Amino acid sequence: MGMAVGGNKGSMSEPNIVPLIDVLLVLIIIFMVITPTTPQGLDTLVPQPSPPNQPENKELLAKTIVVQVTASGKVLINQDEVSWDDLGSRLDDIFKLRAEKVAFVKGDDAVDFGQVARAIDIMRGAGIDSVGLITAKVEAGQ
After folding, report:
1. Which residue, of 33, 50, 122, 123, is most buried by count of CB atoms within 10 Å of its CB?
2. In this structure, are residues 50 and 61 in contact, taking their beta carbons and an 8 Å threshold?
3. What span, in angstroms and rounded, lies between the C-alpha atoms of 99 and 77?
4. Are 140 and 47 in contact (CB under 8 A)?
């Protein structure tokens, strides 16, 4: 336990560290359980391609907002060119009256990911709740 007898000084007490070890083991188990529940990364949406035999829904296409970052550094909102400085205010105006704040971002193959991340950051700052990613395979319907 925690006591040693002997020597010329009489009895000598030692601290009992068993309860301390028990507490530390419980804390380790708690942290191991909590750690996997922390979110990591960005929540994204990937648009699903429509079946090839079905005609395109014009109403859905009119409501869909796609921010495209080109290899030359230009930014487009649904084929309308916008400067990087005006991107946030334009998106804010578009989504001001919409209940569903979902938009997609598309980057050309030669675009540095930093530019796409910058566009996502501006989109989130403009109040867009969900940002989806469009890839070349999704666009081709694969």
Report:
1. 123
2. no
3. 19
4. no
How many domains does the chain divide into?
Answer: 2
- Which is it for strands 102-107 and 130-134: parallel, antiparallel or unpaired? parallel
Task: Give yes or no for a contact between 50 and 109, defined as CB atoms under 8 angstroms apart.
Answer: no
Same domain, 30 and 78: no
72 plus 122 within the same structural domain: yes
Q: Residue 115 is encoded by which pair of tokens?
A: 């530019």
Host domain of residue 32:
3-37
CB atoms within 10 A of CB 67: 26
DSSP code of residue 38:
S
From first to last of its 142 residues, the chain has per-residue pLDDT tens of: 555 555 566 666 778 888 899 999 999 999 888 877 666 666 665 556 666 666 666 665 567 888 889 888 889 888 888 888 888 888 888 888 878 888 888 888 888 888 888 999 988 888 888 888 887 655 555 5
Shared domain for 97 and 134, answered yes or no, is yes
- The continuous run of DSSP H or E covering 140 comes out as helix 136-140
pTM of the shown model:
0.57
8 A C-beta contact, residue 106 and residue 67 = yes
